[in-house]
Write a structure and sequence with these properties.
Aspartate Aminotransferase, domain 1, Aspartate Aminotransferase, domain 2, 2 domains, 7-stranded mixed β-sheet, globular
Amino acid sequence: MKFNVQLDKLGTETAFAVSAEAEAWSKKGHKIYPFHLGDMNIPTPENIRQATYKYMTEGHNGYCPASGIPELREALAMDVGAKRNVNYSAENVVIQPGGKPTIWKFIAAVMNRGQGVLYPSPGYPIYESQIEYQGGVALPYRYVETKNGFAIDLDQLRSSISNDTVALIYNNYQNPLSAASSQEEIETLADIAIDHDLWVLSDDAYYEIRYTDDPPRSIVSIPGMQDRTVILYSFSKKYAMTGWRIGASIGPKELASHIAKLNVNDESCTNHFIQWAMIEALHDDISEPKNILDELCMRRDTAVTTLNSIDGISIPSPESTFYLFPNITAVMNKKGFKDIEQFRIAVLEQTGVSFCTRNHFGRPGEDEKEHFIRFAYSGIGVHDIREGIEKFKSWIVA
């Protein structure tokens, strides 16, 4: 008996493997400082929990339309459109069981076998996995390190485009880099998409996880982009709902209808009663998201300050997400490591500090010579952030 050969091309979210290693080390009696997984240890707001219970007990526990209940689709269309200065209706919105389903459904809807899709590397590993599993050609585009963070290597991106390239995956406020595009960078990407007639997946998972009063920037706001762009929307980060699994695909009506058909063939529909609760969350959208952001901001400031106290590490304070991506090449050289995975495991076993490396976010390019790690601070409190990084620092200087 044999399996589908395409399974060999299906990757995983390897941060979960790091999490399993950390848990195994913890069971041996060691304290773990969990910087590895972008999960959240912040409670989901009380109003959402109460609303969910209310709708559950009122009987909203059966099937609902594959594209989601009309009331939530309309509320989300209004909210997302207003925050991006575009107009959407319920017909543009397809509710999903989380943010991740939008990735594979977008690719399934716009890409044929043998066609190319541009995606960020380092980037969320499921992009690469789904492109290759569905028979496409994965075209990674890279970032360059600057004094202010990371910027897209636009020349390298342009050079990767061919007549067979059909789509661009773009993650502003980026995981794992926390990269935030300038308006100029967004406009250049929009010009590239229009010039080459590319579909665009705008992964907006961290669109509202930002620590500045400046309004967030979206590629869908650029003239000519709304009709070729699908937004990946997630409730997970904004409302600390990573395990609730609810999100949406938002885009042109015809493409939305194809994605809704994929819903029918996959999960039938998204959890019914949670959808009703999210309407109330969108209508009461002031205090609780701000409280979550305030907590994350304190964690960011603690992590940035403590990491920057380590000789050989220098990172700017990012305006978005809950990740830090320091260059640790000098630190590895100081400790005599050439292999970044050996470095990661040594740090875990000797300090309890657990993190992911660049290798967990897409295949590194052959020309990549520097070493980076990702610190996620969404699932660890301020005290443990400081204590864990200080242990990391002490190990480095020992």
